[in-house]
Amino acid sequence: MGKYIINGGSTLHGQLVVQGSKNAVLPLFAGALLTEDEVVIQNCPDLLDVQNMSRILRSLGADVERHGNSVKIVGKHLNSHEIPVGLAKELRSSIFLLGSVLARMKKAKVAYPGGCDIGIRPINIHLDAFRELGVRIEERYGYIFCDASEIQGAPIAFDYPSVGATENVMLLASGAKGMTTISNAAREPEIEGLQDFLNAMGARISGAGTPFITIEGTEHFKGTQYTTIPDRIVAGTYLIATAVCGGEIEIIGAKPAHLHSLISKLTKSGCKILVDNDNIYMNVSGRVAAFDKIETQPYPGFPTDLQAPLCTLACVARGTSSIIENIFETRYKHIPELIKMGARISVIDRVATIRGIERLSGAEIAAMDLRGGAALVLAGLNAKGTTIISDIHHIERGYQNFDGTLAALGADIIKV
Questions:
Q1: Which of 221, 280, 345, 377 is least enclosed, having the fewest CB within 10 Å?
Q2: pTM of the prediction?
Q3: Residue-number span of the structural domain to which 390 is assigned
Q4: In angstroms, rounded to a whole number, what is the distance separating the alpha carbons of residues 370 and 360?
Q5: Are residues 12 and 113 in the same domain?
């Protein structure tokens, strides 16, 4: 499985180019199945989740080839509508394939998806929307069977702005007859990225980035080349890492507007941040000030995916911070591991109260999920002594060459 061994105490200095977004690229893989033509996705990160999605596409009959940071997908010989249970259990984002496979094949069979265990993430919001579009759905023996032979555009109104459900409806409705509208749509940058990608393939979608999206269905999709947007969560993690360790870094190729909520919090805590087009420069000297209260919210609010790394920063900040997790009810699995390292944290329901200390202490700990695992790496970078983190496969689902990038910035970290 691999481990990280970290000797804490080093400051971070240097430049890094942010990777392509994991959360953006996985729906693009699904969308590539809408056409028989060649699709090339550039700035594609090499991650475990991307590798698993590639395996699923190949199992459906698509050709998938990686060349450096680009991936070529050709779905001309798609010959299956069944998403393998083993791979679906490994990858939450396999649910995106339901919309695109239905649009292309008019039927689909998929097991309930897996991924990080960070709380209840029901897919009924996806299935209810599909039913509104005319999909006949049966759920039995842990599988979902769908028939989309009579899909038709329709108005969809979400009770909650789910990112995954918004993207899935966009994929399915692009191939449906007539007009589909989504009210209370998710507004994340990844939604805009999917709209741009699908429109380049011939779809007719507008409104992404707002709560109201319009999709006019089409039967004709073509190949395209598309560059994945930068990963705002990865960029944010490196900014927080620098705040934890001290030092100065420049992140090249980011989208600062996508990180407004984090940049605002870090600036208020004492970090010096300058933004120049798509580059972010940050200088941190000494311990940052605590955060009075941070609540995770759908975009453009503070992202749940940065809650765990920011929790580590609060552990070593001056004063007491309060973090409220509103999105996922069990996204505090990193906290017992931080407490092993000396962190002073108490949790009541969804509220974590954190009293900062100057430095944590090295320990043997385990990553429980993707973002919580990244938070533990940041804790190890600060800690006195040696920290050993096991189960790092969770972290490698979303961070490309995490140890190598941190080492290049001056961290004492190795993978064994």
A1: 345
A2: 0.95
A3: 3-18+230-415
A4: 21
A5: no
How many other C-beta atoms can be found within 10 angstroms of the C-beta atom of residue 217? 20
pLDDT band at 113 (very low <50, low <70, confident <90, very high): low
271 counts as catalytic: no
- 248 and 126: one domain? no
User: What CATH code is carried by the domain that includes residue 193?
Assistant: 3.65.10.10
Q: Which residues, 6 or more positions from 348, have their beta carbon under 8 angstroms from its beta carbon?
A: none
Q: What is the token pair recorded at 70?
A: 């680009």
Whether residue 288 is found in the same domain as residue 216 = no
| Alpha carbons 307 and 369: distance in angstroms, whole number | 13
Distance separating alpha carbons of residues 258 and 357, to the nearest angstrom:
30
157 shares a domain with 171: yes
Write the pLDDT tens digit of every residue in 57-84. 999 999 999 999 999 999 999 999 998 7
How far apart are the C-alpha atoms of 165 and 171, rounded to whole Å? 10
Q: Answer yes or no: do 393 and 307 share one domain.
A: yes
Exactly one of 116, 146, 245, 315 is catalytic; which is it?
116
| 211 and 333 in a common domain | no
pLDDT band at 170 (very low <50, low <70, confident <90, very high): very high
Q: b/e map of 169-192 (b: 16 or more CB within 10 Å)? A: bbbbbbbbbeebbbebbbbbbbbb
Question: What pLDDT score does 85 carry?
Answer: 77
Same domain, 255 and 325: yes
Question: Distances from the Cα of 27 to the Cαs of 22, 34, 172, 178, 336, in angstroms?
Answer: 9, 12, 12, 22, 33
